[in-house]
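Any chance you could type out a protein's amino acid sequence plus the matching backbone structure tokens because I've never seen that pairing?

——
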Amino acid sequence: MTKPIIRQFKLSTGEEIICEVLEWDNEENSTVLIRSALKVVESENYKSGIKVFAFKPFMFFGDDPRIMQTINSEHIVGELSPCTSLLKMYAKCILKIAKEYDNNKEPPTIDLEDLDHLNDSELEAYLETELGRLKQDLELVEDSGTVDNIIQFKPKETVH
């Protein structure tokens, strides 16, 4: 088994993704075949000077890391081989996402046709119940206490 090719791309939209490259583009085709694509999301607390990075699926409903996706190489404006700490974080995140996906932790869907018979107050009650259930699920995930997928940059005491 060959070692996977993991790359970080800066896209023309400004987004940054990290993914496994399965097939590169060529002279006849500008498509790059990838999988396990995660978007790098940045957040900064300006008061404390702490910047954090996290991952989320690159495309909506693309939670299964085994799904192959394509990107147009003409929209890649930068590429690099991720550093070791980012690779470790990426690998942990992909394993966690795959495990959750396999345990059917898919986002709930609502078929609007099933709700046609409800009046406004019944619909509001149904949506409040579903929202409460989703909040409860999120609290369980947040209470797990694992924040191993966050890297802090520029801690408060760092001077440049």
Summary: DSSP finds two helices and seven strands in the chain. The chain has a mean pLDDT of 82. Residues 3 and 20 are 10 Å apart (CA to CA). The domain at 5-108+147-153 is CATH 2.30.30.100 (SH3 type barrels.).
